[in-house]
Structure formats: C-alpha cells, structure tokens
Amino acid sequence: MSKVDPAKSLALKLVLAPVLVAQAVATRKRAPSLPEAEGPREGRLGRGDPALRLLIAGDSSAAGVGVARQDQALAGHLSRALHRALAQPLQWSLRARSGFTTQQVFALLREQPLPAADVAVVVTGVNDVIDQIPLRRALAQRAALADWLLGERGVSHVVFAPLPPVERFPLLPSPLRNVMGADAHRLDDAVARWTATRSDVSHAVIEVELGPDAMAIDGFHPGEPVYRACGEALAAHISKLTLRVAEERR
To answer: What is the pLDDT of residues 191-207, one digit of tens each?
Structure first.
C-alpha cells in the first residue's frame, strides 16, 4: 500500500467523517461477537532445562478470537513452531483480552501475577487504530510497556507483532477500510522505525493473505490459517534473535 501523507489523511477523514461514522456504527451492529479461544493459557513443551520462557500479551488476536481453542490460535502455533525451531524446552504463558488497546494491555500485565519470561511478544495495534490513539502517544505507550517488561520483569527482548493490513478485512466497507488501513500502516511503519533504534526490542515482519477463507466468520479476526502463518513467522523471528544472542555470548 502506498504511503499516505498525514495531513492529507486528516483532511480526508474530515471530509468523509459522516460516512465513516455511519459505516463504523453499521459495521459494529452487523459483526457477530466472537469469544476468545478456550483452553489453557500456559504450558510447557519438552523436558529438562534450560527452557526458554515466552510471554505472549495482547488483544483479541493474542487471545485467539476467531478459533475455538488455544491450540488453533496464535499461542498454540507460536509455541509449537518455536519449540521445533530451537529444539529446546519451552515454557509459555498468555495474557490477553479482546478489545484492549496497548495501554490497556499494559495495565492488564501490571495487575496480574506474571511468570518470569525471557522473551515477550506483544500483539496490539488494531484497537489503537479503532480508538484513534494519536501516533506519538501510541509509540510512547509501547515504549513504556517495553521498558517495564525489560526493567521490572527482567525480560531480555520484546517483540512487537506487526499490525495487519486492515484494508483487506472482509468485514469493512470502503472508504472505512481504506482510512483504517492507512492509519494501521502509518502506525506500523512508526513502530518499525522506533524498534530499529534499539537492540532490546524488535518489530517482526509477517506476510500473510487475508482472504475470506483465511479469516474468521466475522470477517475481522484471524482464522486458523492466519494464526498458523503468524505463529510460524514470529517463531522464525525469535529463533533468529535467540541464535544471535547465543553467538554473541560465545
């Protein structure tokens, strides 16, 4: 998708505001409400030590909305793919809530007991776009979350999953999908630039098709094919980081 100038994007939103509001209200009314995936939110793969400790935190996409069970969702596919890639034991835990923004996910993590983790994967952003969180504030909230995980929780590295191509969500009509898609791309590009300035956080790159067959029945959340692709891509990203750190310590 081509870059959108922020000033032009704001002007477009103002011009289309009545249409966008009407479409957003109508979309919410017709979208089915899907539950979070059922099943354990923590587990272990493999025996022995040392085990890589993985924390997954985020919104509905982290919680597995769109599939029935956690083993079909991001946590299941990511943990299994990472265990295979690293060929070592893996201890994983999930903390996620549907509809949460980055700031709300941060609050959720602070109010709950958290197991120790070596790597944290943060899956947020779409609700920041829906709530129209200003770009600078959205980045500051991610920085605060990452610094807390790295400092207070002793995490070694924080991975931010990319925002999906919202303009390809089947549920969304045009021009709402185009405006939301432009906002999502702008936020994702900013997160990528910010993480590139640090060695303790990173932005994963995921290429995935979002056709109707790959999405959940609501046309908004991932189906299992998307969760599988994202889990495997995040596992490849983390395994590269882990191997690089191991080589640097030799």
So the answer is: 999 999 999 999 999 98
